From TrEMBL, chain A:
Keywords: 2Fe-2S, Iron, Iron-sulfur, Metal-binding, Oxidoreductase
Pfam family, one: Fer2_2
InterPro entries (alphabetical): 2Fe-2S-bd, 2Fe-2S-bd_dom_sf, 2Fe-2S_ferredoxin-like_sf, 2Fe-2S_ferredoxin-type, Beta-grasp_dom_sf, Diverse_Oxidoreductases
Domain 2Fe-2S ferredoxin-type: 12-88
Organism lineage: Bacteria, Thermotogati, Deinococcota, Deinococci, Deinococcales
Annotated organism of origin: Deinococcus seoulensis
Name the UniProt record assigns to this protein: (2Fe-2S)-binding protein
Iron-sulfur listed as a keyword: yes
PROSITE patterns assigned: 2FE2S_FER_2
Length: 185, 293
């Protein structure tokens, strides 16, 4: 599109890359990303407060940027890789964060959980070994109305440990040539 | 609530954005991080007919020092300043401010320049920019002009940007080693607007006396309030407890807030005093004067 073109206020087609899949959807310019995702059947993205406060709608842009998808237009998301909670893991193959929320009971009603997971994922990308205080601060834009925060912090710390161990194992595996498997050369 | 309908234009360069502004005039608004504008649109407090999105203008997302200034591009996110080691080490006022703007997720998309252009008197960057003596860079078809932040922030949600102008950058003077600052904020909960907040920046001479003082308040008037009387009072002084107390009293006098659910006028005025005193003590402590924060 050039700068001299304007779109009309009726429907337009956006192409979104969500969890590695291409989704084409008819939206208005004013359609918020959270609603576009839910209209596409991705109901894991929740709309809680609709005022940019609660963080239930957080998705990731380009892998490591958390975004409140109720405070972004679907048209803005074109050209970005979007990850929703559906892209984090599956029931048979939980992401370490999902497993940790399960293990630590990091939820009560669960409504805030998708946003908590995605925000925690973004934080661990930049800070793989956070203090409890850092977890609390980074998650402070995600509200849990059941006040289950303590278990959420425990869950994030468990996931951080698992993910660090996995990263370390991968790094070690990378240092050892494949021909060296089973013993030193 | 959904915003009112609008036409959407994605610009891929500053020139494309300027062309769109030229075509649509006052009907058009610039969309940067969207973290203030989109909530305002959802509440129908803002109803731009045309949104010109800078999301595709990658070359406005920069942060570097040049010519004795920190230059922050229009698409540079708050989080970029927050994570920058040089900013954290040397720009204490900006670091303090960046840590309390909205919440961490909002800061991942929100931009410093966008916040200043939004010109919300409760926005944290306004007072910080005043205390730091920031300068805005506005680009138009006829070139660029520099606007001191004092002249840029005109009124609530009103800047001195002219029709057809695009704010492309904000510049913060680089602290020289004898300069430190602090941003102090009281908020009801994380992510809330300030009940009261104060930005302070101090430069000391070799003799420990103040050679530059910047003092400004958030949520204390129709625009961020620069406390000239406190700045004048501090100049040439040692940062003693008496001087700090006197300067902070000027902040109370200059504060002109309105009463709301966050507090009464008297409470907010008194908090302006308290926060300027805390900011001055924190700055003095960072400058190694022996004053403890």
């Amino acid at each position: 599109m050039t700068a001299t073109e304007t779109t009309d206020t009726t429907l337009r087609t956006v192409t979104l890359n969500v969890n590695g899949q291409t989704i084409r959807q008819e939206v208005e310019s004013r359609t918020l990303l959270a609603y576009a995702l839910r209209d596409a059947g991705l109901k894991g993205t929740h709309v809680g407060c609709d005022t940019s406060s609660c963080g239930c709608c957080v998705v990731l842009l380009d892998g490591d940027t958390p975004a409140k998808s109720c405070t972004m237009f679907a048209v803005q998301a074109e050209g970005h890789q979007i990850t929703t909670v559906e892209g984090l893991g599956s029931p048979g193959d939980l992401h370490p964060l999902q497993q940790a929320f399960w293990d630590q009971h990091g939820l009560q009603c669960g409504y805030c959980t998708p946003g908590m997971l995605m925000t925690a994922k973004a934080m661990l990308e930049h800070n793989p070994d956070p203090t409890d205080q850092e977890v609390r601060e980074f998650l402070s834009g995600n509200l849990c109305r059941c006040t289950g925060y303590n278990n959420i912090v425990k869950a994030v710390q468990q996931a951080a440990r698992v993910m660090r161990d996995e990263a370390q194992a991968q790094a070690l595996a990378g240092m050892v040539p494949s021909t060296a498997e089973g013993g030193a050369q | 609530m959904f915003p009112a309908a609008f036409d959407y234009i994605r610009a891929h360069s500053a020139e494309e954005a300027l062309a769109a502004l030229a075509q649509h005039g006052a009907e058009a608004r610039i969309l940067a991080g969207g973290q203030s504008l989109i909530p305002a649109m959802r509440l129908r407090l803002a109803r731009p007919a045309v949104l010109v999105d800078l999301g595709g203008v990658k070359d406005l997302g920069y942060l570097h020092e040049e010519g004795g200034e920190l230059r922050v591009g229009a698409m540079t996110r708050d989080v970029t300043l927050e994570r920058d080691a040089n900013v954290r080490a040397r720009y204490s006022l900006l670091t303090d401010t960046g840590a309390v703007v909205a919440d961490p997720v909002v800061r991942c998309l929100g931009t410093v320049v966008g916040s200043l252009c939004h010109s919300d008197p409760s926005g944290d960057w306004g007072a910080a920019a005043l205390a730091a003596r920031a300068v805005m860079v506005a680009r138009s078809a006829s070139g660029e002009r520099l606007i001191p932040i004092d002249e840029f922030l005109v009124d609530s949600f009103q800047t001195s940007l002219e029709e057809g102008e695009l704010a492309v950058e904000v510049r913060f003077p680089t602290p020289d080693g004898r300069t430190h600052g602090s941003y102090q904020k009281i908020e009801r909960k994380v992510g809330d607007y300030a009940t009261a907040a104060a930005a302070v920046q101090i430069t000391l001479g070799e003799d420990g006396r103040v050679t530059h003082a910047g003092v400004a308040l958030t949520a204390a008037g129709p625009r961020p309030v620069r406390v000239d009387a406190a700045e004048k009072l501090l100049l040439g002084q040692l940062l003693t407890e008496d001087v700090i107390r006197a300067a902070s009293e000027e902040a109370r006098a200059a504060s002109d807030p309105f009463a709301d659910t966050r507090g009464s006028v008297e409470y907010k005025k008194d908090m302006a005093r308290v926060l300027v005193a805390r900011g001055l003590r924190a700055s003095a402590a960072r400058l190694g004067t022996g004053v403890t924060a």
